[in-house]
Amino acid sequence: MGRRSRRVRQDEGGGAGEPPLSRARVESAPGPRWTLSSDVADVLLRGVPPPEEVLLSECLERVRHRGTDIDGNVRMDVVIQRPERFIPDADLREMILSLPECQTYALVYRAVPLLRGEGITSVGQWGGADENTDARRAVRDALADKRLWNTTRGLLDAAFNAAKDAEARRKVGKPESEAAVVIPGAFESVVNARWSYVESGHVDMPLGLKIFDGTVDGVVVPPVWSFVEVKEISGVDELELRDLEDDGERDMAAEHDRKIVAGGRPRVEIFVLTSAMGWPYTKFIPTNVRYVFVRREMVRVWHVVEQRIQMWPNCTPRCPNKPHILLGTPGIGKSLGCGSYLLHRLLHYDAAKVPAVAYFVGGSAYIFHKTGAMAGQAV
C-alpha cells in the first residue's frame, strides 16, 4: 500500500490491499472482558494494539486521490492533530477521516489525551451516564467532532455497563471460577407470564368447564381470589377432604354445601400461569412444562407472605422477621407450582421493598434482580 510497501503472508487474515488495522480486527480474539480498572485507551482500541505508523500517502491512496498537491510523507498521528492543515480540501479531508484506521488514530491521539486531561483514565472513572458530566462536556467540546465524540462515548458507556454487570455477577456469592451467568429472557418470561383460567357452571360445555384467556390489557380478568375468598370453602375437592377428616359425620351438611358450590352462576375453579421460557424448576428450558396451576391454597400462601412483607418495617431485634416454611409432598406438582406463583408475585411487588428475589431448586440458585445495574435480569 503506497510507498511503504509491506509483504503480507496469506495467513495474516487479509489481503495486501487491506489496512493494518482491518487485518488486526479480523485476527483478534473475541471482545475483551472489561473491568472498572480497564484503561480508556484499551477500550477505545477494542483491546487491539495501537495502529502501526501509517503515512498520509497510504490513506490518500485508499481514497484514490492521485494529486500531487499534498505532502504524503507525514505520519497520520501528526495529521490527526490538525487535519485541516495537512488536507486543505474539505471533501477529501472528510473521506480520509472517515477511514476506519483514521477513526482509530483520532481516538488514540485526540480523544485519549483529552480524557486523561480531565482525569478520566479508567472505565470506572468514566462512570455511568449521569457521572462526570462536566468532564465529559469538556472532552466533547474540545473534540469538536460529533461523530468522534459519539464513538468515544458509545465505546466507554458499553465498557462501563459490561464492567458493572460483571461486578454484580461476582457479588452473587459464587467463586470466580463458577461466576453466575445471565439467563437471557428469563426475568421477562416470568414477569410477563400469561394468565388463563378454568370456569365451572357452563352447562353447554363438557363437564360444565370452560377455558378462558384471562388477560385483558395486562390485567387478570377476573382478578385472582382475594384473601376473604380463599378463606372460604373452595369447591368439591375441599368438601370431600372435610368428609374424610370427619369420618363422614358431616355427610349431609357437606352434600348441602356441595350443591351450593356446584350450582348457580359460573365461578373460577383454577388459574393457569404460562411462562414462555418455563420456570426455575424447569431450568428455563422452553421445551419443558411452561405452565403452573394456581389453586386457592397457593393464593392463601401468597397472602400470608404479603402480610409478612408489609410487617418488615416494624421488625425489631425483639420482634424479628420470621422465616416461613412451606411443606410439600411428591404428587401433582403443587409445591413447585406454588413456588413459581410466589416468584411471579414477588417480581411484581414494589421493587423498593423487594429489590431482588432468590429462588433455590434442585441444587441451583436463581437471583432475579429488580433494581441496580442488573435490573431486569436473572442469573
From TrEMBL:
Residues 187-316 form the Retrotransposon hot spot protein N-terminal domain. It comes from Trypanosoma vivax (strain Y486). This is Retrotransposon hot spot (RHS) protein. Residues 68-110 form the DUF7578 domain. It comes from the Eukaryota. Residues 1-32 are annotated as: Disordered. Residues 325-376 form the Retrotransposon hot spot protein,C-terminal domain.
